[in-house]
Design brief:
It is a single chain. The longest helix is centred in the first third of the chain and has 18 residues. It contains 17 helices and 14 strands. The N and C termini lie far apart (49 Å). Helix 6 packs across helix 8 and helix 6 packs across helix 12. Keywords: Signal. This is Tubulin--tyrosine ligase-like protein 9.
Length: 444
């Protein structure tokens, strides 16, 4: 069997895990590995795993193979998703914006306040965008950032004076809000009164980009863009997620649907076909030093030796610079690159992978993440010259997910499927039969 781990290799793994007091005697996993029935764990070849970095792998070795009745199947994954969804249904906590303001923003009539930061930089920027849009809709003059927590990110952003962002709403937004109510335990009222994250006024990507440029980009530290050179036209910058969710696939029991990570085939497709239908000559990698590491990093290095492959910068600010200065960028299931791409003023080609699956998410969860990751191709095509989406809506229950995913399983979408002429006609006020005829031709 291809990729079979020898007994000697397994013995090496066992010796590395000795400090963890693993009992490998008469272990079904040991026998299966020795006989070549198992070659991967969560998509990583077993011979490439350092057990000291993957305690869950060590536990798996010690426990032995799952019982057949406990095997992960599509039915079991969907059953777990339905169980998880029970806590995220029910009546909305706030039916409208006024109800939200009365409960969560009643202390200062001139300010929309973010009481507490939620998570890291990506989520924090989203809190600011939500607060700005609500301030525009309600006529409040300022957004106040939290006192504790170091601002958006002390490596990249400064705080405005007195932690106040002054709001200058555009006329169409004044008094207007398509309020998005949320429900369930995950989005309980006390949660959003603390974070201002889920309840929001719905916005388009074009509107959000305008607010990124107007309110977030001016807070960027002035020296960040000195940390790198501008990306070349035939160079692609790839962001790869390491750390807590790097191994989240459909076989990982800890997977959160919004952090379902892409197979390595996504990066290979971008590299080999993203530059005018052919390959990029140069690859700039961006990833953190967190563990576990994505198996796609080594896979890219192994399969693209004919290209110039540059490792990440030596600082976070340097990595941020690479994303902001890229002409071609591929993002993944991470708010880090998702947020930064919106502040890149020279981006020509955007590639992204949409790993959200309606099969394992409630409609409400799916709607939130489609907005937050900015996965709506038709809207993206209104702000970036070229956009290519690779999505994997179907579940893929195979140990070879990361390294052996068949690229024909991607659902691909581009701006060619979303002509800008449609939006231009509507914007210019084309009326009557001419507009009707155009849409009939476009969507027949």
């Amino acid at each position: 069997m291809a990729g079979k781990v020898s007994f000697a290799a397994l013995a090496g793994l066992a010796s590395q895990t000795a400090a963890l007091s693993l009992n490998l005697q008469s272990n079904d996993t040991l026998r299966a590995l020795e006989e070549g029935f198992v070659s991967h764990w969560r998509g990583i070849p077993l011979e490439e795993i350092d057990p000291s970095k993957y305690p869950e792998f060590a536990q798996w070795l010690d426990k032995g193979l799952d019982n057949p009745e406990e095997a992960v199947t599509e039915s079991s994954v969907l059953a777990q998703a339905r169980q998880d969804a029970k806590g995220n249904t029910g009546a909305a906590h706030f039916a409208n914006l006024q109800g939200y303001m009365d409960k969560c923003q009643a202390s200062d009539p001139e300010v929309v306040e973010i009481p507490t930061w939620m998570g890291r930089m990506g989520n924090r920027v989203w809190q600011v965008l939500n607060a700005v849009r609500i301030a525009e809709a309600t006529g409040r003059k300022f957004v106040r950032l939290p006192k504790a927590g170091g601002g958006l990110d002390h490596h990249m952003f400064g705080n405005p004076k007195d932690r106040l962002i002054e709001i200058a709403p555009s006329i169409p937004h004044r008094g207007s809000c398509d309020f998005v109510p949320v429900s369930g335990k995950m989005y309980a009222w006390h949660h959003d009164c603390r974070f201002l994250f889920f309840n929001r006024c719905r916005t388009t990507i074009k509107e959000r980009q305008a607010n990124y440029q107007k309110y977030v980009l001016p807070l960027l530290n002035s020296d960040v863009m000195d940390k790198c050179e501008d990306g070349a036209d035939d160079e692609v910058t790839l962001h790869i997620r390491n750390g807590d969710v790097a191994l989240h696939n459909d076989l990982n029991p800890d997977m959160r649907p919004e952090h379902r990570q892409p197979p390595c085939a996504y990066f290979h497709k971008v590299i080999e076909t993203g530059y005018k239908g052919g390959p990029f000559k140069k690859i700039q990698l961006v990833y953190s030093t967190e563990e576990p590491a994505s198996p796609c990093i080594d896979d890219i290095l192994a399969k693209h030796k004919d290209k110039v492959v540059l490792k990440p910068a030596t600082s976070l600010a340097g990595d941020v610079c690479h994303i902001l200065a890229a002409k071609n960028l591929a993002t993944t299931m991470s708010s880090f690159a998702t947020v930064l791409k919106m502040m890149n003023k020279g981006l020509q080609r955007l590639f992204f992978v949409n790993m959200l699956s309606p099969k394992i998410m409630t409609p409400e969860q799916y709607d939130i993440q489609m907005d937050y990751y900015e996965f709506k191709v038709d809207e993206l095509c209104q702000v970036f010259p070229e956009v290519t989406s690779y999505s994997v809506p179907e579940l893929y229950l195979d140990e070879g997910f990361f390294l052996k995913f068949p690229d024909e399983n991607f659902v691909v979408d581009t701006c060619k499927n979303h002509p800008k002429k449609a939006a231009a006609l509507v914007k210019e006020g084309t009326t009557g039969e001419a507009k009707k005829s155009f849409f009939k031709r476009l969507f027949r």
